[in-house]
Amino acid sequence: MLVIGITLSLLSIVHAFIPMLPVFSVLYGIGAALALLSLLDVNKPWVVRLLAVASTAAMFLYFFGFFRLVHRFHDNWYQSGMALEAIGLLTSAFAMIAVLSVYSCRLKGDDPETDSGDQSIFGVPEKIKTEG
To answer: What are residue 60's phi and psi, to 5 degrees?
Structure first.
């Protein structure tokens, strides 16, 4: 998570100096903050849920930005500056999956503080009847 946070922070700083698309600086900054916050020991369920929802939103915003760029691609798109934008957005979107996974694991944890009442969707019942 530290590598993801640092990478997104660097992308945020680089995009702060690009006058064409300064909104990417904010988007990468949000992703960096979410990745770095996943390193903290947050145990409140409502905070973890909020961070998980924010991570999901950031991931979808990165995918949305990438797919908005796709229609502008031409034959040699990978040789233009647009390739860096597309690769940055796509890489960031997939990196947010790992960040979301951290928050998801915390919600499914055994700690009574973070124990979620809706684990039955993803969990396995304690007493499983096996056919034998």
So the answer is: -70, -30
Which range of residues forms the domain containing residue 61? 2-110
Q: What is the pLDDT of residues 91-132, one digit of tens each?
A: 999 999 999 999 998 888 765 554 444 444 445 455 555 555
**CB within 8 A of 116, min separation 6: which ones?**
45, 107, 108
Residue 86: the pLDDT is 83
Which residue did the predictor score with more confidence, 78 or 87?
Answer: 87
What's the domain count of the chain? 1
Helix (H, G, I), strand (E, B) or coil at 54: helix
Q: Is 131 among the domain residues?
A: no
Residue type, 118: D
